[in-house]
Structure formats: structure tokens, C-alpha cells
Amino acid sequence: MTQHMHRIFKGLSASVKRASRLAPHQSLHTQHTECVPRLWESNSALDPYHYTSGRWLHREEEHQRARYIKFDLNALCRKAIEAYPGASRVVNYEKKEGGFNRVFILHFDNGAKVIARVPFRLAGPLALVTHSEVATIAYVRSRTSLPVPEILDWSDDPENDIGTPYIIMKHASGVPLQERWPTMNTEQKIRCVERLSRYLRELAALQFPAFGSLYFSESLVSGKGAIDIGSSFCIGQHCGTDYWPSIPTEPRYYERRGPNRGPWKDLREYSTGLLDAGYSRLPPSPAKDEFEGTVDEHLRLLKLSEEILDVLLQQEDIQKVAEPTLLHIDFHKRNIYVSDDDPRVVTAIIDWQSACIEPMFCYAHETPDFVEAPADIQEYLRQFLGPSSEDVPDDPAREKAKQKPEKEIDLCQKTYTTILRALIPNLWSAMQMDQRYVRLFRYCNSSWRDCAVALRQEILELSEGWQDLGLPGTSPYQPSEEALAAHRNAWEDYETVQKLRLFMFKMAGSNSDGWVPNEHWKEAQVVCRDAFGLWMEAMREENDPNMTEEKARRLWPFEAIQ
């Protein structure tokens, strides 16, 4: 498959330069209208029920259906007015749409504004997700100094007067750190990173007796076996999407093993929950092919994973970094608000949806974007040097100016790592340890979605380093030379396809779901159709008997654009 791949990349780069302006948009689309009683036109730009911020290059209908919410917007406005003293009318709203929620910024007649948020069904079990987020915010507010949103009203009942679970909260004061960051000086950035790192330390210091999600003790949604932790809080079943059939493209089956969603009292129980979630993804009848893996192959890999995890669970190095921990799962600039006058002051940390209690090592592979060099370093440099600076090659002034952002990134990273190393040593240890120890915990539950060869590669890398990692005996995975050769060929194909997909996401200006903002929809379709033609032509020239036309179409990331 790889023989002609360079031709695809070269051909696409030359033929779709017009797509270079289709950089993925991070900002959310905003709509405005007066909130007065009226009939909303289906699929109109002002429709509060349908998704209107973009399109998908594949599975468009499924994505739209998963984001459709039928509810009473006027009833939601009334609830907001009742919850905010001094307001008597909503004069207009802004509609924003993210990956898991529809958000309305409601503007009152007294000049105030609040956030009213309703979740998409792909966010997880709606009652649990909503209840757990409110309880988590309340718990963090009561145990730490973190500035979290102030909840004004909420309901986890899908049958309430509004017709959907909802959360109404005060609008965060200040401005998003993502917007303020480019204008901050070095000292402000370092102090802001220091403050955020110390907030992280406060969260990491919270102690819990089990893994799962936080709820209020009197709640019925927390599930059987909820563990009381005092002060009207408990740990109940995990509300994350890994354990529930909430994503339409990822159905669940429980013929082999029943649902296992916690709470889990120790790492062994937690690991069993991961494996059971992996089994639940496997359909009862054979499906997929030799590249993605048959059901029987996935069953063998999950059984093998269970044997290997049994060994890993006994390792002291893993036990030291596995304590139940609650951290923000999306601790990035877009979810952090700072004072516009003094950006060293953090005014709010938002979006606690699906923040759950996990083993500490689960957070070790995530690095906040305020201490990372941006993916598009040229765009980052233009913030400092101006849009025309890149047109002057070998400019000594530009080279000197480049040192400033590079130095800032280095100073922010050193500030962050120094605090972690001193104040959160277990998290620091988890970040420094060989990740082969813990990657199997992260990926064993999603092999059906990610492809059998990906899980097999994780097992192989762990097995090849078994002795170096100090694991006892020999690895349960002992493939024959023939099986090893077949896997390496499949892994090469897998990596090629992943490179193709990443390349196409960039060319089409989409994210990994194939989402494209409305204003670039037509151009993205043209790019994908041109690229698909090159892909199929290259596959035919490859003349690989294992690569049928049907399989080549299935491996293409945007199957609807052919």
C-alpha cells in the first residue's frame, strides 16, 4: 500500500493549495435573535434545536441526529429569569455549539447575562452527566480555592418542563485565556502558569476511596453501590462515554459480559471495568476484515490484555501512580478565564462535564496548551512578528524576534514542571515513567473502534520490553515469526492510513470527525473529491491482491465524499 503514497501527498499538496486557507476553526459559531414566543422554522439559521455551526464530510445524517435537541427554549428562558434576581426578560441570546453541548448566552434586560446549556445525547447518559457535573463543581468549590462556575439552576430530569436536562450558570467574568494570551507579556504568562499549576496541585491533593463519578448523596442516578464520602457527596457509576452506548456510531452489546460502570474500589476492579467495556463494543456476529480485525481476533486480544494487566496490577511502580484522582480533563486555555485588566488573575475554570475520578496515571499523557508550543508555530510567530514577517527570508531582525516566543514557551514549561515535580510528585512520576507500563490501561477498552492492529501493537511493544521493564517471567504474548511478520505488514498499512487521514484532515480543514465550518463546506468537498480520485488511482497501481476496491473505499476517512 505504501509504494505510491508519496505520490498522493505530493499530488494533493500541488493540486489543492487552495485548501491552505481551510485551517480548522476553533471558535464557535454564534447566532443572535430576540427570545420572544414564536414558531421556529426547522433547519433555519436561528433554529435552537438543530446543529447549525458546520457540516460533516462523512456520516452527516448521524452527526446531525445526535445533536438534535427537542426542547422548550422559552421555558428555559423563564427558568433563567426566575434564577437571576432583577431580570424580567431575555432580550436576545447567542447560540454556541461545541462537541457535546448547545450553549445559549442569555442577555437580560438589566444588562446581565447567564449561560444556559443543554447536552447532546452523545455526551453520555444525560441525567448522569448533568448531575455529576453539578456535583463535581459543588465538590471542587467546597474543597479548593479554584474559581468554578456558579450554578443558578439545573435539572437532570429529561422529562422536566423544558424537555431536556439543563444547567443554568452565571457567565464567567473576565475573558478566555485563549484570547488574552497573545497580548500578555512574559511575566504575566509565567505568573498565570504558576497560578494554574497550583490549582492543579489543589485538585491532585483531594483524596478518594474509589474510582467513578461524583454525585450528591441523595441522588438516585448514582447507581447501585454508590460510596458515601461525606458532606452530602458520593462516588457512583462512571458517566463517561467509554461505558455507555451514547455515541450513535458505537453501539454496545452485553451478551458476553454485562455492563460494568463502577464505582470501583481498587485498580483491579477498575481494570475489569475497562475490559468489560472493551467486550461490550464487540458485536455478536462476525464483522470487519483482516486489517481491522475480526470479532474472534478482538476476543483473543482482550483475553491477552486481561492476562497482561493481571501482571501489571502487581507492579509497585504502577500502584504508586494509580491513586484515585480528580483533575480537569480539558485543562486548556479555552476553558480558563482571566481578568482582562490583569491576566495573572484567573477568574474562572469552566467545562467540568465528564470530569471523573481516574487513576492518576490516566492524566500523565495530557499537557495543558498554555505550556506547549502551538501546532502551527508559524501562526504563533505571526502573533509576535506580524503577518508579513514570513515574507522576508533570512531577516536577522526576524530571527532575533523569534527568540522571544521560544524563550517564553521554555519559561512557561519550566514553571509548570518545577511545580509539578515539587508539589505533585506522583503525577510527575507518572509523566516520567515508561508509558508502555500504562498504555494498555488506556486502550484495551476501545480496540473495536481503533482497530485490532493498534491494540496488538501496544501488546507487542510491551512484550518486547518485558525484561527491560522489570516485569516477572515472560510475556503472555509469544507470537510466531509468521504471525509477527503478518502483524508488521498490517501495522505498516495502519500507519500509512493514519498518515493519510491526518493529511486529509489538514487539507480539508476538518477535525477528526470530519467537521468543517459552514463557510468552507464547498471548498472542503472539492478537496476531498480530488484527493479520493488520487487515492483510488494509487491503490489500483499498487496492484495489491489484499487491497480490494471495496477495502480502499472503506479505509478512506471521508467515505461519503467519493
Description:
- The protein has 18 helices and 16 strands.
- The protein is α+β, with helices and mostly antiparallel strands and 562 residues long.
- Among the domains are: 1-24 and 485-562, no CATH class; 28-119, no CATH class.
- The strands form 5 sheets. The chain has a 6-stranded antiparallel beta sheet, with helices on both faces.
- Strand 4 and strand 5 form a beta hairpin.
- Helix 1 (5-15) packs parallel to helix 16.
- It starts with a helix and ends in a 7-residue tail after the last helix.
- Keywords: Kinase, Transferase.
- This is Kinase subdomain-containing protein.
Keywords:
alpha+beta, six-stranded antiparallel beta sheet, three-stranded antiparallel beta sheet
Question: What about the largest sheet?
Answer: 6 strands, antiparallel
| SS field, number of helical segments | 18
Give the amount of beta strand, in percent.
5-15%
Oligomer designation? single chain
Radius of gyration computed on alpha carbons: 25 Å
**N-to-C terminal Cα separation, in Å?**
19 Å
Could you tell me the mean pLDDT? Answer: 86
Fraction of residues in helices?
Answer: 40-55%
What spatial order of strands do you see in the largest sheet? 1-3-4-5-7-6
Going by helix content, strand content and strand pairing, the class is alpha+beta
Coarse shape: globular
Task: Identify low-pLDDT runs.
Answer: 17-45
Number of strands: 16
Protein name: Kinase subdomain-containing protein
Organism: Lindgomyces ingoldianus
Keywords: Kinase, Transferase
